[in-house]
Amino acid sequence: MKIATDLWHRRGHSIADELRLIKDAGFDGVEFTVSEANENLPNVSDRGYLRIEHIMDDARELRKLANDVGLEIHSVRSGLLWRYPLTSPDPAIRDRAIEIAERELEACSLMGATALLIVPGVVTEDVPYDVAYRLSQEALGRLSRKTEGLGITLAIENVCNNFLLSPMEFARFIDELNSPAVGAYLDVGNVMDCRVGYPQHWVRILGGRVRRVHIKDYSIGLRGITDLFNGDVNWAAVMKALRDVGYDGYLTAELHPFNVAYELYFRQLAERMRMLLTL
User: Are the beta carbons of 258 and 264 closer than 8 angstroms?
Assistant: First the structure.
């Protein structure tokens, strides 16, 4: 397995310096997040480098800069699918979501990324569960037909969206799409944060459907996400389950860095993730 992190933006710092810092800390790869150009971003943010309005120009620049420092761009997060859900009751928003995902796939192809993280939809008071299921499958079916042959996985993530609330349903959902281009982006911390069980069980049930893994810990006492090894995730069981199902892809940290001692944070995080690989 290899280790990666989301790219975090510090206002006033160059992209090249940020990528070099990640590489020097000991990471093998990086994951970018798609945003809109007009987003009001904090001083430290994981958004802003890959703008949907300029996505191909940004993708070209990021590919060159990552190649220059020796980082693999293995994945892209489609962060805008919270704002434009595939399951919106408004067909215009659903069409916009499809358009965004298609542009993101083009960017993935240009950068050499082999996974696009997809939020499959959101169940709300106005969007019942069965309606969300149908709309999500319709949208992902359309996208999968365009993705097959590109070597890119539509990696559906388990997120706190009131949807796909068990590993058995998640597996069935993927199987019903019946496409080699569709898999799971398993977020270890989200399993516990969303109160839907234990991540090692999700790994074993999803099996070979797992195409990417997000790493973060969860504290039962604090009822929230924590830094790696500061929570209650049974990492030894998770890592054993990943090996048992044959997973050999990226483990990507999705954790907020320190607001100060930024460089120290990434060095420590990479060291912890390397330790994780030994469990």
Answer: yes
Count of the separate structural domains present in the chain: 1
Distance CA 162, CA 170 (A): 12
pLDDT in tens, 74-112: 999 998 999 999 999 999 999 999 999 999 999 999 999
Range of the domain at 107: 2-276
Tokens of 179: 């496409």
Q: Which pairing describes strands 50-51 and 153-157: parallel, antiparallel, or unpaired?
A: unpaired
Percent of the chain with pLDDT over 70: 100
Over range 150-155, report the average pLDDT: 96
Residue 25, token pair as written in the block:
């800390």
Which pLDDT belongs to residue 197? 97
* pLDDT at residue 41 greater than cutoff 90: no
Strand partners, 31: 6, 75
The full 3-state SS of the chain, as one line of letters, equals: CEEEEECCEECCCCHHHHHHHHHHHCCCEEEEEEECCCCCCCCEECCCCEEHHHHHHHHHHHHHHHHHHCCEEEEEECHHHCCCCCCCCCHHHHHHHHHHHHHHHHHHHHHCCCEEEECCCCCECCECHHHHHHHHHHHHHHHHHHHCCCCCEEEEECCCCCCCCCHHHHHHHHHHHCCCCEEEEEEHHHHHHCCCCCHHHHHHHHHHHEEEEEECEEECCCCEEECCCCCCCCHHHHHHHHHHCCCCCEEEECCCCCCCCHHHHHHHHHHHHHHHCCC
CATH number at residue 112: 3.20.20.150
State the average pLDDT for the chain: 96
pLDDT digits (tens, 9 = 90+) for 124-133: 999 999 999 9
Q: Is the pLDDT of residue 260 over 90?
A: no
